[in-house]
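We now fix the convention by which a protein and its fold are recorded. These numbers are not coordinates but entries in a learned vocabulary of local backbone shapes. A record is reproduced here so that you can trace the correspondence yourselves:
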Amino acid sequence: MSLLSHLRKKIYPYEEMISYIPPYSNILDIGCGDSHILEDFSKINIKSYTGIDPKIKKNIYKKNIEITNSTIEDILKNMEKFDCILMIDVMHHIKKTEQRKIIIKILSAMKKNSILVYKDISNRNKFFSFMNKMHDFLYNFEKINYFESEKIISILQNKKHYTFDHFYKRIFWYDHEFFIIKYNF
């Protein structure tokens, strides 16, 4: 395991995220980055893994694993094959004007009995919010575009057949915000 992977696992609640993935799932990982989470899938049985990230430079195809530089828009056309969608620390990289549209499109494309594991950094505490902003600026040279949890709750309350759990977890100075969303049609 690389030093970066090791440090990332110290601040990321990987175990928490993986615990919500149903066994034998076809997984879509939106914004997979360099697929750190894929290393942890040895702890669970999965059918297939598809990771998308526009920053991936080289597409990778292995047995039951695909990592590609597609966009969310490209992958939404084939959502019916995924049982579990991961969207981990992606929303704050999306333009403010696009965030609501993207989450609605993902929810609308989910298949029957699928699950969305959504995690992003939180801005509920000013100090920890500042620390998250500094981390992303120094690490990614990007400005954070927070998408408040109240907006996601509002979207979900207006959609039938969706249930969700919402909670926070703080590790060091990182506030993690979770939604576990199920489409129970």
Q: What stands out?
A: The radius of gyration is 16 Å. The chain has a mean pLDDT of 83.
